[in-house]
Write a structure and sequence with these properties.
This protein has a four-stranded parallel sheet with strand order 2-1-3-4. Helix content is about 55%, strand content about 5%. The chain has helices at about 25-35, 60-70, 85, 90-105, 120-130, 145-155, 160-175, 185-190, 195-205, 215-225, 240-245, 245-255, 265-280, 285-300, 310-355, 365-375, 380-395, and strands spanning about 15-20, 110-115, 135-140, 180-185. The chain has about 400 residues and is of the alpha/beta class.
């Protein structure tokens, strides 16, 4: 069999773990791997902020970074990656296919994880399917307040930036897995009762674990601890975190196998609401594209200037830029929401006036005040116009009767 070919009769399954950074994607992936799913060969090494390991392939992360940079975005970005533009990057799709062949050549059950995948799922789904895998999905969920607290400690991101990123990753992961087998897994639930969660995953994704849960209990016990569950600080349960509670509530119910009519519509309404701030390429992220050119120029001018491009110097500056950008985005969203509410109230008033008997309809001045609330001119109801003319005619002695 030549490289890149696959046996149509061979049953191969890829479990793709998506979800926001700091939402338990690492813990979920590690448990799935202990149950028998193959991991990439070259893993990112543990760090102080994740001593138990990331369990994501170095080559996967490198590819995802390149794709995001191609679109002028970054690891925690909230700008939208157009699926159609993503899939026309044939070179990137081929790179993903080659990565899958190299890392998982002999595995029939694999697990692929990187939070960046949440925004790049169409690319990875196509690559995996072209390599003969059945794609199934685990969407990791954690309270946005807890995510914001974690990112504040690790990266200095403020709640406004962290929450926009949480929304982007959560909404994109949900949308791009909507037509495929998937299950939402709460990080908190996994830590409290991992056995129940792996049973849920097995049933939802039609996956039979090569290793029995009883056989890996000791290893899982060394990896996850119920004490890792922390309640979100009260200070984070307001502002932007409180605003996105409706989205979190839907996904939380899904993590408990409780779906209700209208859930998808609510998530879609949030996508529409956020669309204007997700369409524009981040000015701060654009800095990342120019960064290497600036560093190269500095290095050519003086020795030892390489530190100017180091993570210790660059990341705090970049993250503060993201914080400012997020503050501006939330200010715009707040104004837009206030305008939308005022517009809906004005429309309701006009509709109510239109349904009223003609003799009870106010004159033109009253209606004009309502119309001005919409921020644009609207044609006045004909009944109001007739009533106003009738009053003028009556005052001039030309009234009918």
């Amino acid at each position: 069999m030549q490289t890149g070919d696959h046996d149509p009769g061979r049953q191969r399954t890829a479990i793709v773990v998506s979800g926001m950074h700091r939402s338990g994607t690492s813990a979920i992936t590690r448990v799935v791997s202990l149950l028998g799913a193959a991991l990439p060969d070259q893993l990112i090494e543990p760090r102080d902020d994740n001593e138990r390991g990331f369990w994501e392939g170095r080559s996967v992360v490198d590819l995802d970074r390149r794709v995001l940079e191609r679109f002028g975005s970054w690891w925690g970005g909230w700008d939208r990656i157009d699926p159609q533009q993503l899939l026309v990057l044939t070179r990137m799709v081929e790179s993903a296919r080659r990565l899958v062949r190299d890392e998982f050549a002999h595995a029939d059950l694999i697990v692929l994880k990187d939070p960046r995948i949440s925004r790049l799922l169409p690319l990875w789904t196509r690559a995996l399917e072209q390599e003969g895998f059945r794609c199934v999905h685990i969407v990791a969920l954690r309270h946005p307040g807890a995510v914001a607290g974690s990112l504040a400690r690790r990266n200095g991101l403020e709640p406004k930036a962290a929450t926009l990123s949480w929304l982007a990753h959560s909404l994109d992961a949900e949308l791009h897995t909507r037509t495929q087998p998937r299950v939402v897994v709460s990080f908190e639930n996994l830590l409290r009762d991992w056995r129940s969660e792996v049973d849920r995953i097995s049933r939802a994704l039609a996956v039979e674990w090569p290793q029995a849960p009883d056989d890996i209990a000791d290893a899982v016990g060394e990896f996850i601890e119920p004490g890792l569950v922390h309640e979100s600080p009260a200070s984070t349960l307001k502002g932007p975190v409180a605003a996105v509670t409706p989205v979190y509530d839907v996904l939380r119910r899904w993590s408990e196998d409780d779906s209700q009519p209208g859930d998808a519509n609510l998530l879609d309404s949030w996508r529409g609401f956020l669309a204007p701030i997700r369409r524009e390429r981040s000015a701060v992220a654009q800095m990342a594209l120019e960064r290497q050119e600036v560093i190269a120029e500095l290095r050519s001018r003086q020795r030892g200037a390489g530190r100017l491009g180091s993570a210790e110097v660059w990341n705090p500056i970049q993250h503060q830029g993201f914080n400012r950008e997020a503050a501006a985005a939330w200010a715009w969203l707040k104004r837009e929401r206030q305008h939308s509410r005022a517009a809906r109230r004005a429309v309701q008033q006009i509709e109510q006036l239109q349904r009223s008997p003609a003799e009870h309809v106010p004159g033109r001045k009253s209606l004009s005040r309502v119309v001005r609330r919409l921020g644009r001119r609207l044609p006045l109801p004909s009944a109001a116009g007739e009533t106003a003319r009738g009053r003028r005619q009556g005052r001039n002695g030309r009234g009918g009767g």
